[in-house]
Amino acid sequence: MANNFLNTNWVSMDILRLLLNKLEVAEYFNRSWERDFEKEFAPGAAITVKFPQRFLVSDGMGYAPQGINRVSTTVNLDQWIQIAFEWDDYERAVKLERSEEELRENYMDPAAAAMAQEWDNRCANFARQNASQIAGVLGTDPTSVAAYYAARRLLKELACPPGKRGMMISSSMMATLGNNITSIFNPKDEISKMWKEGYIGDLAGFEFFESNSLYSHTAGTWASSVTVNGANQSGTQIAITCTAGDTFNVGDKISFASVNRVNPMTRRYPGPVAVKTFTVTQALTGVGGGSASDVLNILPAIYGPGSQYQNVDALPANGAALTLFPGTSTPNGKAGTVGLALSRYAFALVGAKLYVPKAVESAGQATDPDTGMSVRKVKAWDPVRSMEINRMDSLGGFGNLYQDNGAVAVLGA
Questions:
Q1: Torsion angle defined by CA atoms of residues 220, 224, 230 and 235, in that order, rounded to the nearest 10 degrees
Q2: pTM (2 d.p.)
Q3: Residue 258 CB: number of other CB atoms within 10 A?
Q4: Cβ pair 131, 407 in contact under 8 A
């Protein structure tokens, strides 16, 4: 690919300030399992993370042992991102900026910033697809703080442990709050900080930030009612009856009639009964007619009464109706930005340091301060093509931890 250098006329030695988005989503991912990929032996492309055992309490003096039943999740190291560019010796002699400082400022720093943004983008997309709890209405920005307090309520009622929490909202969500912003986020020193750093303030136990990393989601389309095909199903796969051509998109949020959420420790719900929502983890186009192929993959797994991992008050009944994006009227094909209420208990972000070669002109590895991901930079000279090669690489991956208890998708326009 031909290079295009700006050098036909004198160009100012100063360049415009690099366009940067404040990277916040990755900060609220859990990095604790990264060390498992740094063992002296090769751990493989995925590690299994075991959840703590939960127990049922029995009544009375009689000895009533219960079996150990551990459940687990997987953290994958499968995301490789790269930026590479090169120039030949003629371009270096007559076209390219001269000093190493100029090369760093004009090429290396922008490349590193692009990689950091890419990690934040991928974190936001992973959270959008895998968060199962929702607050707000798809396609409509919250006009008050009610949706944000609803997100707080969900985390509390689902036993999310205390700790640092972040609320990532779009600029549209921010603008919709309008003039209320100065009365919502107090005290005044927070308002001052907002204008200086892009930080909005604290509300409902969250640190609020405007994020350009957020994604829009388009809901699937159902021609008619969708129902459960077979009683008492549990786990992460549910057979359904739908119309041929119905679409279920990754990240769609659904509920089942009369399947209500419970607190994972008390196994009951301390308040008005509310349906539990699930996220679709694999795209599906319905075959229709009760086909055995019409099986929805969802998170979290459904655990009914009697299980130590119970998260609903009843298993879905045969013929129970599904609802797409509960709380959103006419959700078929509707699109909207997905804000994120995150704790560090929901999702894992892991990275691995890559081999740093010796037989090159220069090579090194550094950790990005915003995302925490390692980036390797290699510069080498190709004697066959008389070409200087530059490449930056980063390896990472994601996993679901307590995706049901530690995150909420806050819906917007």
A1: 20
A2: 0.91
A3: 15
A4: yes
